[in-house]
Every structure is written in structure tokens, then in C-alpha cells.
Amino acid sequence: MSRILITGSGKGLGLALTEQLTKQGHTVFGFDISKGGDVRNPDLSGISDIDILINNAGVNIINWLENFEESEWDKVMDTNAKGIYMMSKACLPMLVKNKGTILNIVSNAAHMPMTCSLAYNASKGAAHIMTLQLARELTKKHGITVFGIAPNKLSNTGMSDDIDNQVVATRGWTKKYAQEYQLNGLLTGEETPPQLLAEFVAYLLKD
């Protein structure tokens, strides 16, 4: 069984991953902003060894360009992109020793631009190319496996609900219309249950 550090473990996909991987017998270290775990300034006190790092923490702030503040840009980019760099670097000695794995939770936003989501799209595009770059560098040099997955909108998570509310406030839509609009943009026309995605991730990390 592996020792796994999951960022953004307090809710949504991070919580589903924590529960699923713990159920399968892995040792899971939660790292969440609600408990003082900030990916922008990682403190790994109490975590002496891991085999797998899952960079899952993410944030989205929706607004039109003319209303989007620099501080909001920094928060999104620093969490979603810089956070991958900071956590991967902080965990690198442990991952090198164990020839470990880095899994980055990217997003379909890396490939599909969304209105009022400049920083989020940019951050996830960065996360995508960072994943490819880290795989190119760390696999050859240290035997570390690096890969990413790009889920679509997840159902019944705090972030999904927050996005719906932000869209309503920004675009003047009803919440029902905002949800229907977003579903129409998804390939399958439906959101992905985080528990299902967690099962998929657990399968990928099985060996």
C-alpha cells in the first residue's frame, strides 16, 4: 500500500479521493487550506515519507475581464499553477527516494475556454503543460511517474455550487439556466460524480 498526500482534501473531489484511497488500505495525508495546508507555501511538518502526490487543490473566480482584479488573478494562478510547482518541489526528495508518482488534477478548462474564466483557463492550461514537462524531466532523471487527468464539471461539490452562484451573479442568469447552459457544454451532457472519478483514480494508482 502507498503513502499518498492529497491537496485540497477537505471537500469535493479531494475528500472523495481521500475516502476511496483510505478504504483501499492506503495511508492518506490530507493537505487542505481549511486546516492550514496552503499549497502556495507548503509546510510538510509531520509528513516524513510519501509515494504519491496528488495535486488536487484548485480555485475559480468568475468575472468579466474589466472587473477582474489583479489580486483575484494572483489567487487563482498561485493556487492552480504555482501550487503544483511548490508542492512538487517540496515533496521531491521523498518522491525521488521512492521513485514515486505525481498526479495532477487538471481540468477540461485546459482545452475549452469558458467565458469570464480567464485566470482559471490560463491556470489549467499551465497545469496541463506543467504535467507534460514534469513527466519529461522527472521520469528520465528520477524514475518518477507524472501524469494528469482532466475531468469535466463535477456534481454536488462546493466548487460546482460556487461556480453556479458566481455565474448567476456575473451574467444575470437564473441558477437553473446557468446549470443547463453548463451541462450543454459538456460532452456527455452531465456532470461527473466525484466518487466515480475517485474510483477511476484509485484504479490508475493501483499498480
Quick recap of the structure?
With 207 residues, this protein is an alpha/beta fold.
Structure description:
The chain has 207 residues and is of the alpha/beta class. It has six helices and five strands. A five-stranded parallel beta sheet has the order 2-1-3-4-5, sandwiched between helices. Helix 1 (12-23) packs across helix 6 (194-204) and helix 2 packs parallel to helix 3 (118-142).
Write the layout of secondary structure elements.
Elements: E1 3-7, H1 12-23, E2 27-31, E3 52-55, H2 70-98, E4 101-105, H3 118-142, E5 145-149, H4 158-171, H5 175-184, H6 194-204
Parallel strand pairs: 1-2, 1-3, 3-4, 4-5
Keywords:
single chain, 207 residues, alpha/beta, five-stranded parallel β-sheet, 12% strand
Find the count of extended strands (DSSP E, 2+ residues).
5
Low-confidence stretches: none
The sequence of SSEs as H and E is: EHEEHEHEHHH
Radius of gyration (Å): 17 Å
Q: What share of residues are in beta strands? A: 5-15%
What does the main sheet amount to?
A: 5 strands, parallel
Helix/strand/pairing class, anyone? alpha/beta
Shape: globular
Main β-sheet, spatial strand arrangement: 2-1-3-4-5
End-to-end C-alpha gap: 10 Å
Helix content bin: 40-55%
User: What is the overall pLDDT average?
Assistant: 93
How many H/I helical runs?
6
